[in-house]
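README, section 4: Worked example with a bound small molecule

Sections 1 through 3 covered apo chains. Here we extend the same pipeline to holo records, where the ligand is supplied as SMILES alongside the sequence. The molecule in this example is magnesium ion. Nothing else about the input changes; the structure line simply encodes the ligand pose together with the chain.
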Amino acid sequence: MSNVTVCARFRPLSSKEKRDHGDVICIRSIDAENFVFKDEKDEDFTFCFDRVFYPGSEQVDVYEFLAQPIVRDAVNAINGTIITYGQTGAGKTYSIEGPSILGCDEQKKEGLLPRVVGELFECLKSADEMIKYTVKLSMVEIYMEKVRDLFDLSKDNLHIKEGKVQGIFLSGVTEISILDPEEALRSLSSGIANRAVGETLMNMASSRSHCVYIFTVRQESTKDRRMKTGKLILVDLAGSEKVEKTGAEGRVLEEAKTINKSLSALGNVINALTGSTPGKVNHIPYRDSKLTRILQDALVSPPLLCPHQITIIFYQKPTVFSSYRVETHELHYFVVAHQAL
Ligand SMILES: Nc1ncnc2c1ncn2[C@@H]1O[C@H](COP(=O)(O)OP(=O)(O)OP(=O)(O)O)[C@@H](O)[C@H]1O
Ligand SMILES: [Mg+2]
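The generated complex, written as structure tokens:
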């Protein structure tokens, strides 16, 4: 069975979108895996994913389908990665964080992070008593092609290294030991406060960096001292954007160019993986960006070091008014990934 799951999520229309363009949306549901995308010329394109989350979907639906199994795997020493990809303002950060990490006013709006943390500690409560677990958390952002430690801002250019046993790792990254969900949420909230966020015409709080959350679950058997590790990685990518639409200039323009370049590098890696002929080793350009290098172990197909589950969620605004050519192109690209990886 493939270790790769590819889903699509559409957020509800915002009140501004409704005011400006009415209730028209560019997608029509067929079922939980297929939808029709209508372009500006009223032409229909049908797409198929492992799961489609329509505008009425709840955060819990996304969590249960794609994150819960990965959390349970991490407790059983199986690595897993969740990557959010898509246009700026399409809802990636909302899915990962919810409206706020601490003190979200409605439980149903809670994002993946608080749910992951809750489930992780629930799993550990009911785990084998002969095993001692420790959970560590690291948080970095890739900003302007530099890896910054969000728990220690003095570490603003971490090096990505590769070891025979541990695979890809961030040399010297801060790892916070977390003992309970409340402590984990406080740490996440302080890391998020350090992340680069800026206002653009497309999104009031646009992520200007790719953010990588790494939960490491170590287990040690009290019988024979054997150690095992499961990593759970969540990646909130900065959105792809058309600079003329975001009104970018100066620093914001430089950020946008760097973001688009690293997203292209991710696309090239996925293309190289999906285009490879069985039995023939293709060159996969992992080293072309920090993002693809950090995600190298997750994106290797089939995984080499140990089992690794990966989920890519493609985010799309439900409006018909943005440039459909880019959207259908990107959608096609994820459909290929869905079929081939
Ligand atoms: N499922 C949802 N339900 C309600 N509101 C949502 C949903 N998804 C996103 N939003 C709202 O849409 C806006 C943009 O979302 P968000 O910041 O998550 O986009 P993004 O994809 O992370 O964009 P960027 O790439 O610029 O960081 C926010 O105001 C957010 O609250
Ligand atoms: Mg964001």
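What to look for in the output: Residues 92-93, 207, 236 surround magnesium ion (ligand 2) (CB under 6 Å). Residues 4-340 form a domain with the Kinesin fold (CATH 3.40.850.10).

Section 5 describes how to batch many such records.
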